[in-house]
Amino acid sequence: MYTLWLLTQLHESESGTRYSRYLQLCMAAFGEKLGKLLALFPTIYLSTGTCIALTIMGGGSMKIFFQIACGTQCNANLLTAAQWYLVFACSVVLLAQLPNLNSVAGVSLIGALSAMCYCTLIWAVPVSKDRPMGVSYQPIKSNSDMARLCDILNAIGVIVFVFRGHNLVLEIQGTMPSSTRKPSCRPMWRGVKFAYLIIAACLFC
Question: With 70 as the cut, is the pLDDT of residue 104 above it?
């Protein structure tokens, strides 16, 4: 949260320049040559990992949605998982041709509402229905210390992955109006806290 707060504060300089990319911010802080050297590799590395993860999740979700919507009629002509990843990647490339994030505000709204709905269903359905006979929700205990360590690291990784968002903070803040009296960092920070509160409630409540 602290590093996210720093990003929202560093988005605007005293001269009024707004930095909507990590590369721009790094070049302003460390100079053109050193800034490029420090920012390019981590940005490309992290962006590649995020894109791969989102492509796998997006393609898998599209495949499941198609199976549910089409039913048993389309089982013979189903695409493979790799083909669904390609479909998702092509749709993302088409969306990337839009000028800015404001152009996909409707898509973002649908995604946010969908995430809130299925996260709510995850806890609402078990609470409203009785536990089935013979079903236990106790976690399976690992037999070795190495397996326990892997379970801990996996849990931390899941939480960290859910609380990601640093890669989009500057771009989102760049679409918000800003002035000397009302800088964009204030509403942006309120939005960040509200978003993280929802995520924490869905994970831990």
Answer: yes
